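Support request from a user on the community tier.

User writes: "When I paste my structure tokens into the form, the page sometimes reloads and wipes my input. The last time it worked, I copied everything first. Here is what I submitted, just in case something in the input itself triggers the reload:"
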């Protein structure tokens, strides 16, 4: 009886050992398969990151060029706002009529520029054409 029990225990231990071995083998296979999937996924992410890095470099370059162009345009057209303000101050052709009348009364071109919002060239022209004639 003792030997039967001993055989039964040995058999149970053998079966348990085999089951544990099979479980360990299955765990290794599952881990290996998961590891392969993770490697493939990691390679795809690395490839995407490299592509995104190239795109960001391209966008940065475009942004820099655009910034330079905007700055250049801003510098070229810096006086436009001042000129528009002068034109708005001038109003209609009535301002020219008033400037001509003022020039006939002896107002100089500097005062015409201030008073009627004329450009320096416009004020000089009005003063020369319509200003009082100076006698020597």
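"...and here is what came back when it finally went through:"
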């Amino acid at each position: 009886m003792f030997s039967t029990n001993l055989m039964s225990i040995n058999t149970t231990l053998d079966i348990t050992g085999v089951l544990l071995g099979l479980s360990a083998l299955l765990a290794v296979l599952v881990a290996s398969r998961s590891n392969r999937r993770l490697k493939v996924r990691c390679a795809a992410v690395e490839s995407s990151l490299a592509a995104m890095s190239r795109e960001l470099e391209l966008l940065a370059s475009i942004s820099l060029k655009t910034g330079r162009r905007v700055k250049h345009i801003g510098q070229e057209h810096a006086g436009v706002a001042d000129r528009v303000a002068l034109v708005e101050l001038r109003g209609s052709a009535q301002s020219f009529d008033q400037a001509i009348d003022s020039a006939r009364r002896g107002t100089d071109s500097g005062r015409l520029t201030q008073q009627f919002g004329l450009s320096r060239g416009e004020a000089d022209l009005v003063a020369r054409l319509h200003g009082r004639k100076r006698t020597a």
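Agent notes: The reload is a front-end session timeout and is unrelated to the input. The chain has a mean pLDDT of 86. DSSP finds five helices and no strands in the chain. Escalated to web team.
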